[in-house]
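Long-time lurker, first post.

We've been arguing in lab meeting about whether S-adenosylmethionine would sit comfortably in this protein at all. Half the group thinks yes, half thinks no, and nobody has a model to point at. So I'm putting the question to the forum: if I give you the sequence and the SMILES, can you give me back a predicted structure of the complex? Inputs are below. Any interpretation is welcome too.
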Amino acid sequence: MRFTFAKTQIMELINPLVQQYAEAFSTPEDDLLREINLFTSKNHSEYQMLSGHLQGKLLEMVSQMIQPRRILEIGTFTGYSALCLAKGLVSGGQLHTIELREVDAAIAQGFFNHSSFSDRIILHTGNALNIVAGLNETWDLVFIDADKGSYIEYFKLVLPKVRQNGFILADNIFFHGQVLADDVKGKNALAIKGFNVFIRERNDIDKMILTLRDGLYLVRKL
Ligand SMILES: C[S@@+](CC[C@H](N)C(=O)[O-])C[C@H]1O[C@@H](n2cnc3c(N)ncnc32)[C@H](O)[C@@H]1O
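Top reply:
Settle the argument with this. Predicted structure of the protein with S-adenosylmethionine, as tokens:
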């Protein structure tokens, strides 16, 4: 499949005016999410990894629609998306989230402690490739947002544990637009390109790409 586009279109997937308009007409972030967003922008060199207002709201809305009992998030960062996803949990529900880096995990835990979900978010620190297999749960909703080279592995690990009609969301599936190039370069862009083909070719799932921010694959287990 070939895609034709100008080089200038690679990095700017979403028109900034459209982005601003959509944010202005969406429910604002709550105080804690705004605090995490601001803290991360001021203190973290990889701020761009944070889901942010619109994507966070989408995650919350999806979770509110599903009303999950068990959510798995792979890639906590500073805790923003976990707190969005947790908003849809049913009473007695839990969200497990996994972060490799201890510093980020500690920041996220601090924010979780200040939320109303402190007893419902379980943060695991370590490599998700080792931790996911040990979690004996049936997932209603999974959010994959960690190292791009492991997306296929994460998908294979979690799919058997997702309930029928459960959902998986995977982030950054345009990889800043790089997967659209004729000649995809770079380890992560190639990994995402491979993941996208892997998902497209499967017929045991229902799938669509959401063109929000850096793109999300939305998958339903059949
Ligand atoms: C894109 S960020 C997550 C952003 C977060 N979900 C949000 O929206 O605010 C990816 C995170 O995955 C973590 N990560 C990378 N490789 C990992 C691994 N093998 N296991 C667990 N976490 C990993 C990184 O340290 C980073 O904090």
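For your lab meeting: The beta strands are 70-74, 94-99, 121-125, 139-144, 162-171, 205-210, 216-221. The chain has a mean pLDDT of 95. Whichever side wins, do check it experimentally.
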